[in-house]
Amino acid sequence: MNGEMFRMKITSIDVCQIPSGNAGAKRGAWSPVIVRVNTDEGISGFGEVGLAYGKGFRGGYGMVLDFAETIIGEDPMNSEKIWQNIFRNTFWGMGGGTVVSAAMSGIDIALWDIKGKALGVPVYQLLGGKINDNLRVYASQLQYGWGENNTSSALKTPEEYAEVTRLAMEDGYDAIKVDPIAVPAGDSWERRGKLSAKTKEVYNRVAAMREAGGDDMDIIIELHANTDSKTAIQLGKVLEDLNIFYMEEPVHPLNSKLMKEVHDHVNIPIAAGERIYTRFGYRPFFEDGSIQVIQPDICTCGGIGEAKKICDMAFVYDCSVQIHVCGSPISKAAALQIEAAIPNFLIHEHHQRALNPQSRETCLYDYQPVDGRYKVPDRPGIGQEPTPEALKNSIIQTVSDAKIYSMS
Question: 135-140 and 33-39 as β-strands: parallel, antiparallel, unpaired?
Fold first, then answer.
């Protein structure tokens, strides 16, 4: 095969703020930022900056514009070279952090998408081939209800938690995740220090889910790092007899010593990672054994290449992998490619937002699990891209020859 055909050149980068969810608003609580890298061979790759929610999408959008200026003219097949150039030669790249790593991720995913399309293979083939296909899936964030037609804003009573568990089971799931302290039962409650009387309410919610789901239902406890170590240990001990699959982000996501303190006092595996970035960020958690399930987000941890390295490091430390997925369909597609190719895959996250019809309609393919399982797509690249209509309605800025052009 003639290697000359693969000597492509990056000609431009489009940064697109996709209208999705939030009643179709262009900006708001749900604001996916998509990166499109274009080449002189007519092949374009798509990636995502994983800051679609919370505050930060504008920062990620702008950071991609800055980084894009450094890669015009590069060969997109050289994703490792481009990653290292951004990491080492932009000054802030080595500092990392949420916005920097998310921007690097969006670019890197798009480059891997180009590679797969150029070679006519799915990305997982470039990562060593498919190990996993029939991926187990859990229904995520059930404290806000579940289902395509879900209209619940927040669940409070144990009976409601039991009912939402049954809804997930009807869709074929045998694993669920819930934040049992996210929604106050009555007056707002303190999430740090000792929960005292509130502990019983938390226990009753999860116990209702266990009873509804039976012994074969795996339950993941999410705390969103809203608890300190004292509270997390207290809750963990109370919930131990309910056979919890693992406990996610019980304390600050960047403090491995606090995570280790919880692990040492609670007989439940500890998970974290959606707010940990690159191999450098994961290193202390691996070395002190503070987490047993890592949750890198492909769209914030550094991209596909970096995520694969993180997962390989986790394998050495006997850590399982649950990729964090809470973005547009681009995010999901990238996650599935990684999950297919790693030996320490545990389970796939299917967020309530992934059921949002407005978000699903922004991309060409609507990948959804069947009976709580995912088949990994075999389309070239990551196997997903925005629809022409979604791009037409996006806010787009283009970097070409180190110049920025705006369009909407």
Answer: unpaired
In whole angstroms, give the CA distance from residue 360 to residue 390: 11
Sequence-separated (6 or more) residues with CB below 8 Å from residue 50: 60, 102, 105, 106, 297, 298, 299, 300, 326, 327, 331
Q: What is the pLDDT of residues 372-402, one digit of tens each?
A: 999 999 999 999 999 999 999 999 999 998 5
pTM score above 0.70: yes
R_g of the chain computed on alpha carbons: 21
- Which of 12-26, 63-77, 363-377 comes out lowest in average pLDDT? 12-26
Count other C-beta atoms under 10 Å from residue 149's C-beta: 7
Distance CA 372, CA 272 (A): 23
- Return the bridge partners of 293, or none: 271, 320
**Alpha helices (H) in 153-228, listed in sequence order:** 158-170, 198-213
Residue 60 and residue 104: Cα distance in Å, rounded? 9
Does residue 291 surpass a pLDDT of 60?
A: yes
Residue type, 109: I
- pLDDT of 121 above 70: yes
For residues 279 and 197, give the distance between their C-alpha atoms in angstroms, rounded to a whole number.
40
Nearest C-alpha neighbor of 277 from the set 121, 70, 56: 56
Query: To 10 degrees, what angle do helices 329-340 and 98-119 make?
Result: 70
Whole-number pLDDT of residue 191: 79
Q: Cα 147 to chain center, whole Å?
A: 20
| Exposure string over 207-232, b if 16+ CB within 10 A, otherwise e | bbbbebbeeebbbbbbbbbbbbbbbb
pLDDT of residue 28: 54
Question: What is residue 151's predicted lDDT score, i.e. its pLDDT?
Answer: 82
**Structure token digits, residue 225:** 């790092």
